[in-house]
């Protein structure tokens, strides 16, 4: 990736600092654009992330400040993208705002620069519609927290060139991610389609009184969930045999939830204000201690994966 040296991350909110950290740690000169009140938190967020990881044996303390030194911040958009080779947009999930940002970047950036959107739900094809050079616009869906979860979905919009896809895949691998090539721009891309198919069935099981929420989670975490890091669904189908897979599907698929609208139980909880951890009650009840234990357990699990896999 010798032709890509300068990275710009647009957005200093939930995702931006973690994405910037990935590039800075790997030696890239990185600029973060954001609102003036957000920018002072960027360095401290990255420092906190890297200290936590170093404490777990991922990276070294002495590498933290040099990495932060490769990150600069600015609230001027033209300044942010003036010498960018690769731009990652991580701003609010609003189609019109994103379209206008990309149209503006299309005119400000060098013609060879790649423009990527970190959207998790909005079509990259639609985001690119107001831009002239749509062949260089691509989806890069980092998962939250981006500095710990290895996956990046590289999504080919309708007009994205093969050269843009190849360069983006290579760059994501260079910063230690596990990129997957999504060949069609469809709602949910790849992993969210899989994740929410599972969530739909899990919520349906609870809604229909088949099992309680905690039992659903226990079932997943103590059965196929244990296999998933080393045995994906396509591998599993081949392993057990496609004849058996077909036989199972002939029997069970007609009994699995296939609703095209959100669950009434889910809508009812949202209307009542039972939003989950943020309100202390969702499908289950959450104390502050329980919520913190959940977050800490997730972070520890992800760091263990990183350490075990040499990331």
Summarize the structure.
This protein is an alpha/beta fold.
Structure, described:
The chain has 311 residues and is α/β, with parallel strands linked by helices. It has 2 domains: 6-182, Rossmann fold; 192-308, N-(1-d-carboxylethyl)-l-norvaline Dehydrogenase, domain 2, CATH 1.10.1040. 47% of the residues lie in helices and 12% in strands. The protein is built from 14 helices and 8 strands. An 8-stranded mixed β-sheet has the order 3-2-1-4-5-6-7-8, with helices on both faces. Helix 7 links the parallel strand 7 and strand 8 (178-182). Helix 1 crosses helix 2 and helix 11 packs across helix 12. The two termini are 19 Å apart. 28% of the residues are buried. The model has no long low-confidence stretch (mean pLDDT 96).
End-to-end distance: 19 Å
By CATH reckoning, the class of the largest domain would read Alpha Beta
Q: Fill in the CATH topology of the largest domain.
A: Rossmann fold
Low-confidence stretches: none
Sheet having the most strands: 8 strands, mixed
Domains counted in the coordinates: how many?
Answer: 2
Give the fraction of residues assigned to helices. Answer: 40-55%
* Assigned CATH architecture of the largest domain: 3-Layer(aba) Sandwich
The average pLDDT is 96
Determine the CATH superfamily of the largest domain. NAD(P)-binding Rossmann-like Domain
Radius of gyration: 21 Å
Strand order of the biggest β-sheet = 3-2-1-4-5-6-7-8
Strand and helix order: EHEHHEHEHEHEEHEHHHHHHH
Strand content: 5-15%
Give the SSE layout.
Blueprint: E1 6-10, H1 16-25, E2 29-33, H2 40-55, H3 64-69, E3 71-74, H4 77-81, E4 86-89, H5 95-108, E5 114-117, H6 124-127, E6 137-142, E7 151-155, H7 162-174, E8 178-182, H8 191-207, H9 213-221, H10 224-227, H11 233-240, H12 242-252, H13 264-272, H14 288-308
Parallel strand pairs: 1-2, 1-4, 2-3, 4-5, 5-6, 7-8
Antiparallel strand pairs: 6-7
Helix pairs in contact: 1-2, 11-12
């Amino acid at each position: 990736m010798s032709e890509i040296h300068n990275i710009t991350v647009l957005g200093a909110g939930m995702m931006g600092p973690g994405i910037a950290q990935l590039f800075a740690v790997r030696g890239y000169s990185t600029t973060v654009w954001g609102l003036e009140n957000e920018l002072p938190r960027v360095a401290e967020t990255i420092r906190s992330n890297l200290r936590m990881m170093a404490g777990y044996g991922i990276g070294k303390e002495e590498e933290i400040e040099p990495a932060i030194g490769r990150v600069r911040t600015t609230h001027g958009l033209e300044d942010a993208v003036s010498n960018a080779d690769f731009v990652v947009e991580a701003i609010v999930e609003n189609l019109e705002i994103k379209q206008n940002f990309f149209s503006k970047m299309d005119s400000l950036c060098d013609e060879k620069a790649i423009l990527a959107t970190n959207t998790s739900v909005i079509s990259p094809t639609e985001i690119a519609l107001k831009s002239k050079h749509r062949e260089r616009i691509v989806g890069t869906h980092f998962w939250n927290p981006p500095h710990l979860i290895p996956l990046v979905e590289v999504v080919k919009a309708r007009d994205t060139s093969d050269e843009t896809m190849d360069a983006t895949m290579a760059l994501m691998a260079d910063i230690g991610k596990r990129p997957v090539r999504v060949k069609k721009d469809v709602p949910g891309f790849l992993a969210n389609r899989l994740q929410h198919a599972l969530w739909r069935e899990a919520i349906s099981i609870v809604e229909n009184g088949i099992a309680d929420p905690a039992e659903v989670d226990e079932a997943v975490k103590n059965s196929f969930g244990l296999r998933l890091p080393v045995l994906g669904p396509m591998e599993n189908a081949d392993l057990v045999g496609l004849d058996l897979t077909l036989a199972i599907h002939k029997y069970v698929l007609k009994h699995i939830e296939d609703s095209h609208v959100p669950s009434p139980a889910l809508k009812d909880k949202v209307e009542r204000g039972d939003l989950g951890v943020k309100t202390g009650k969702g499908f289950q009840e959450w104390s502050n201690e329980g919520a913190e234990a959940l977050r800490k357990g997730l972070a520890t699990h992800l760091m263990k994966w990183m350490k075990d896999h040499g990331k």
